[in-house]
Amino acid sequence: MKHKSIAIDGPSGAGKSTMAKALAAKLGFLYVDTGAIYRTLGLFALRQGAAPSDWAEVEPLLPKVSIRMAYAADGLQHMYLGGEDVTEAIRHPEVSTAASQISAIPEVRAFLMDMQRDMAEAYNVIMDGRDIGTVVLPNADLKLFLTASTEARARRRYAELVARGEQVDYDTVLSDIIERDDRDTNRAAAPLRQAEDAVLVDTSGKTLEESLAALLHIVQERLA
Questions:
Q1: How much is the pTM?
Q2: Around 219, how many Cα atoms within 13 Å sit in the side-chain half-sphere?
Q3: In what order do the strands lie in the sheet with 142-147?
Q4: Tens digits of residue pLDDT in 10-52
Q5: CB under 8 Å to 204, separation ≥6 — which residues?
């Protein structure tokens, strides 16, 4: 039996993970946060003292890294690095930067591609990232591209970090968002872009409930 797949792409802070989790819960699909995989590898590189942007330093680490994805009873995805649950550790700002840098390396993307595609072969999935609809799952049953204004995304990320107890300021978060957008859209390997057959959804000014309702309507309409 062929499983259904929904690809959700978009820039940092657009609400991809939040929306994907909520949609997966509503539809009974498996949620796959591909960004968490890159974050875990980025964390490993930092812990090993390697520069995440330098392929010469990252390459020797790939045979040594052990990344595992598991799901709790509530369906939430947990990331394990060498047996350690790093689900919270990979959300720190320095790891976000490392993930963006390491994901720009073509060989790294190829290394992690099979893990992502295997999930879509085995389950009905909602997978979010930056190149899911264009590269990872080009034949997904539905492709969504979530976006929002730079300021709206920065406010969301700032609120998220403050809620976790991080000591951050809004201007720094905004600057990080702008820099990451530049890296993601201009990298040579699988740059962030909207797939030609993806449905564009702008969540600027929308509440969580309004955004989810809009996405559910599209899913029900397209996958009915």
A1: 0.80
A2: 24
A3: 30-33, 125-129, 5-9, 142-147, 199-202
A4: 998 888 888 998 999 899 898 888 889 999 999 999 999 999 9
A5: 147, 148, 149, 152
